[in-house]
């Protein structure tokens, strides 16, 4: 098989792609998919992504942790949001977490409808993810969650990191994967510095999540690849 | 006014932007907006963009030239398609052309619904266009026509050229304008070479339009800015 890699720059464009034979990698590096990766790596039994804040509530009183973020902040009354520091071994080991976020869970729900498989990507598990994708006889769609359906730099940079890694193992690349790889090449020596160019950098600064951002830009501190099985994200066993 | 510049990477995302106070620059550099620029610069009285090939026919027998392109080729029975070499002084001087193209006219029709003003951009009129945009007290949306609603490199590079030019005259830039400018900086020394990376380069080669491509990548051989007035593109008088 002559494998294809494509980058979908925002969830609003996913209808353009035939993903029935593709592994879709959902990317929302600041912060949903980084926290999911870290949580699964730290022994969370499962993470259940739900679309609406209200949907989380229907899981109350079942012993689950409830995580809800909107516009970058923890929703009042929930256990936590999507800061990776909430997904430590002590907090999530053995637990199931029900999670809703502004962009990440929306992208997940769009992808699951048609994809062959849905996995989670972040800088934290870059190498493990790429090794897995290389070994499968499937196309890959890198789905950037973006910000409210708009293009964003951080998710595109991660897509570019994956493209760079897979360049010699795949045969076909679309224009957005070429662009993503070139942008990553510009940014890779100092990802944090590059992201200061982002239109979101003011928003990030206002949220006071600099530690989270620094954490999410670390490469390969996790080995796990979260995979969607039914309605749950669990650790992929390869 | 603190002016804003945004890049809409494909027409499928235009609903995300509030363009009521924006000048929208429609970009389809290979080849529609280059040919439109060249035709207007060469004295065409007007170019009427229509959505469907069939719509062109309703203008037959009115003394108009009919131009129709689909998937990069002239539609059989039409005077010409969107090769810039069809838009010379000899062929279009004093004439009105009715034009439909795969991506460019679609983008135009989407933009006209809500924009403050719609103008046409191409490498051929880059400097004139940028001088005009600097002098107006309006926001700017650079609308890349892309390829069948997907991101493409050539239109994004042109958007980046405009962003580079306007960088010091505007205050707010979205993430896609940052990305476009950085990609243009990588490509500008040899645009043609950079575009060989494109997934469309095979398609372009098959169409046997290398001369067209080289022509469309020339900077500043035209002074005119085509502007949409009612249903017609005419030369903007400033």
Task: Give structural attributes.
4-stranded mixed beta sheet, homodimer, about 240 residues, 5-stranded parallel beta sheet, about 20% strand, alpha/beta, globular
Q: How would you characterize the overall build of this protein?
A:
2 copies of one chain form a homodimer. With 238 residues, the first copy, chain A, is an alpha/beta fold. Chain A has a single domain, classed as ComB-like (putative 2-phosphosulfolactate phosphatase). The first copy, chain A, has helices spanning 32-41, 53-57, 89-92, 104-112, 126-135, 153-166, 175-187, 191-195, 201-207, 210-216, and strands at 4-8, 22-27, 46-49, 65-70, 73-74, 96-100, 117-121, 139-144, 172-173, 226-229, 232-235. At the A-B interface, strand 9 and helix 7 of A face strand 9 and helix 7 of B. Chains A, B: Its EC number is 3.1.3.71. Chains A, B: This is Probable 2-phosphosulfolactate phosphatase. Chains A, B: It catalyses: (2R)-O-phospho-3-sulfolactate + H2O = (2R)-3-sulfolactate + phosphate.
